[in-house]
Amino acid sequence: MKYYSTNGNAPVADLRKAVVKGLAEDRGLYMPERIKTLPKEFFDNMKDMSFQEIAYTVADAFFGEDVEANVLRQIVYDTLAFDCPVVKVEENIYALELFHGPTLAFKDVGARFMARMLASQNPSEGGEMVNVLVATSGDTGSAVANGFLGVEGIHVYVLYPNGKVSHIQESQFTTLGRNITAIEVDGVFDDCQRLVKSAFMDEELNRHMRLTSANSINVARFLPQAFYYFNAVARLIENGEFGIENYDYTEGSKKGMQANLNSPFSIPNSQLVMCVPSGNFGNICSALFGHEMGLPVSRFIAANNANDVFYQYLQTGQYNPKASVQTLANAMDVGDPSNFARIINLYSRNGQLTPEETHRRISSLISGCTYTDEQIRETMRQCYDDTGYVLDPHGACGYRALKEQLREGEVGVFCETAHPAKFKEKVDEILGTDIAIPERLQAFMRGQKQSVTMGKEFQVFKEFLLS
Ligand SMILES: *Cc1c(COP(=O)(O)O)cnc(C)c1O
Predict the structure, then answer these.
(1) 18 with 26: CB under 8 angstroms?
(2) Which of ligand 1's atoms lies nearest the C-alpha of 418?
(3) For the chain, N or C: smaller number of CB within 10 Å?
């Protein structure tokens, strides 16, 4: 498989380059050249397949040409050492719980897959260590550090702002040791990000060591997120909650990359609505790729907090990025979602369609919503009172969107993107609860903190890396 850049000014890359580089030379995001429709037998049989088997089928469609079958199977099985169950919250509304991994958020899936994929691509050629640099304001650092923990040939440096990360979050990447080094920077998140960017651009450093990023724009981090959408549909069918008897699985491919652009753009006749609380739009983007492969979902909802650039795009066709505002659902505080470029590229068929037609297609498939912190609180309380289900602030946006937008005859699934215990203080304060902290999270909190403290000057960071 070849990968092209959304900016169209970089040479196509093979899988290895796309995974090791992350971003194309023209700063565009890599897109797979083809998105294969999965065969009818897969959809007929999926209810009898395990999560891992389903995931392997999806992974094979993207990576099968480049990675040996037994290696790819191992990567998939190692990644999915935990489940992503679908839980009924109330009539016609289900939570796709993506928080059963090591750091209790959906980013575990992509980070674990990417770590193993990177290791399989012999990134180090000749035994030289590959160094992953990641700046974090909390969640990404823990998912990446845990995803890469113990993966041979790779060393991870997590840079985080001193005093700006919660104790729970900090414990998830500072207590690991082994091939993970936590660097506590005397500054803010932007300083951490600047240090990482400077490192990637520093010639001398790059001559001496192999550096890579584990950013969410990496194809090996975002594509595997499609796994759990297929599994969610399979489990709903298995449990008799939803049927696809009349579903034409080729609908997605009719709209596919290679499709006849004159064919009508129609929505499949399944009645499943997938709702994704979104920030950088990587998670929903992988669901949309799944849809191209035949995922039987009739429409999508992108749930936003007060950061509403995508919502505004859906309403107006204009994309106006702006500075992010801080909210209760802070992992979705993004003012210029990086995967917006992928969504546009996908539905414009790599720039073949006009912006107007592209917008028409996107807004006929995806609807949006935007909620204030007060609405998030209110939704968490309402759901808890009515159903007993504890939402985290991110999942609350998804649940509310379904409550407001689900139509007669539709079944709705929203992603519960993090475990509520990750935000225990806020959740307890809002609901008046004392929710239990899962054992694996407590284990982190009992661990011994190991970190290197550092100023925000690049020279110091550079010397540290070289030493
Ligand atoms: C990262 C994150 C999101 C946003 O996902 P995107 O892929 O950036 O849209 C939502 N919820 C939680 C808990 C997250 O950590």
Answers:
(1) no
(2) 13
(3) C
Is the pLDDT reported for residue 254 higher than 60?
no
Amino acid at 461: F
Q: Please give the average per-residue pLDDT across 171-181, as a whole number.
A: 95
* Nearest atom within ligand 1 for CA of residue 278: 9
State residue 166's pLDDT score. Answer: 82
Largest CA distance in the chain: 63
Residue 165 has pLDDT above 90, yes or no: no
Task: Report the SS3 class of residue 275.
Answer: strand
Q: Is the pLDDT of residue 87 over 60?
A: yes
CA distance 277 to 286: 13
Burial class from Cβ neighbours inside 10 Å (0-12, 13-18, 19+) for residue 452 reads middle
3-state helix, strand, coil in the chain (%, to 5): 45, 15, 40
- Ligand 1: lining residues by beta carbon, under 6 Å: 105, 107, 139, 277-283, 331-332, 394, 417-418
Question: Structure tokens of 18?
Answer: 């796309």
Going by C-alpha positions, the residue among 241, 259, 261 that lies closest to residue 250 is: 259
Protein residue whose Cα sits closest to atom 14 of ligand 1: 331
Which residue matches tokens 């994704």? Answer: 276
Q: What span, in angstroms and rounded, lies between the C-alpha atoms of 297 and 291? A: 7
Share of the chain above pLDDT 90, in %: 75
Test site for ligand 1: of 99, 106, 289, most ligand atoms within 8 A of the Cβ: 106
Work out the average pLDDT over 252-256: 47
The dihedral over CA atoms of 292, 295, 298, 300, expressed in degrees to the nearest 10, equals: -80
How far is the C-alpha of 333 from the C-alpha of 295, rounded, in Å? 28
Residue 411 φ then ψ, to 5° = -115, 135
Distance 279 CA to ligand 1 centre (A): 6
Token pair, residue 402, equals: 């379904």
pLDDT digits (tens, 9 = 90+) for 276-299: 999 999 999 999 999 999 998 989
Q: What are the structure tokens assigned to 365, written together? A: 């498939």
Is pLDDT of 397 > 80? Answer: yes
HEC readout, 178-232: CCEEEEEECCCHHHHHHHHHHHHHCHHHHHHCEEEECCCCCHHHHHHHHHHHHHH
Which residue has its alpha carbon closest to ligand 1 atom 15? 331
Average pLDDT of span 418-443? 94
Of the candidates 86, 58, 62, 77, which has an alpha carbon nearest to the alpha carbon of residue 2? 62
Beta bridge partners of 366: 300
Contact status, residue 410 vs residue 92, Cβ threshold 8 Å: yes
| Res 426 pLDDT > 60 | yes
How far is residue 309's CA from residue 319's CA, in Å, rounded to a whole number? 7
Spatial contact of 140 and 134, defined as CB atoms under 8 Å apart: yes
Listing DSSP states for 405-422 in one string gives: HPPTT-EEEEEE-B-GGG
Query: Residue range 44-63: average pLDDT?
Result: 96
